[in-house]
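for the writeup, i need someone to sanity check this before i put it in the appendix. the sequnce is what the collaborator sent (i think, or maybe the updated version? ugh). structure was predicted straight from it, no edits. if anything looks off just tell me and ill rerun, i have time this weekend
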Amino acid sequence: MILGLVDEAVTAGARQSEVCDLLDLDARSLQRWRCQGIGEDGRTGPREAPRNKLSAKERAQVLEVANSPVYRDLSPKQIVPRLADDGSYVASEATFYRVLRAEDQMAHREASRAPTERHRPDQYVATGPNQVWSWDITYLRSPVRGAFFYLYVVIDVWSRKLVGWTVREEESAEHASAMVADACAREGVEQDQLVLHSDNGGPMKGATLLATLQLLGIIASFSRPSVSNDNPYSEALFRTAKYRPEFPRRPFDSIDAARRWVTWFVSWYNTEHRHSAIRYVTPEERHSGREGDILAKRCELYEAAKAKRPDRWTGKTREWSPVRTVVLNPEASTPAVEAA
């Protein structure tokens, strides 16, 4: 029967490889069945359930956790580390995804698009906090159509911590200069310690800002002209901010309202948000040097979970070692991050 269906489709003009893909059938199996004169589908599937298959109770627990008020707005990549920090292991990320997919609950939990890979020009390497910063400006809608408030933000590339920000009614090198100077004072940045990267906008190359950078001993770095993707950390930060469920869908009523929202966001981002690029610790935990203890406890928890049910682990436990090196605009032969 199966061979007849394949032959009929091929006679009608279809390619055999496409028919096999549609039937989820390997071409070699089809060839073997022809030699053996098998007319029916010879695949029987597994004869018994896997020994490490989740029980109905365990599947229900995964769904209950994923749909709970605490975690329903988070992806499994955020849920699993948070559970680990609370001393609880329910299942791996892959298991969460598999169970949610089976229950048709794999819709995006935020209005976001899939990330795309970019190639960067000049390379800067950070091995600790306050070595490489990135800054940029984005628009916030105001009550007046066509007019905007401007959010200035400085992010530490290594820790992802927001080390400085301000909201103004215009773009200017003077405002940027004051923000950078304040951030350097708070972080205790010394002469010849820091690289500050930005794009090629007017405020970024204003005389006031460049003079401040020279006075503070900061190396100025710039993206290629008309290439915003050379400044990925600031761009990713703005994307995170504007896709938050709490981000207003209507214009801000006033500049004070915009500043209040940014104040909340900076606190959330630095102290609550588990960042995917730094092993799902918060920027503040990494910036202050507390990530080592947190990741060590996660590693111990996973080792205990593996010892309890070794049949559910095909290899090593999840990688929880700290990310030691972060690269801004890595070259083709250089990884963007390097683990311990």
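The first strand starts at residue 124 and ends at 126. DSSP finds twelve helices and eight strands in the chain.
thx in advance!!
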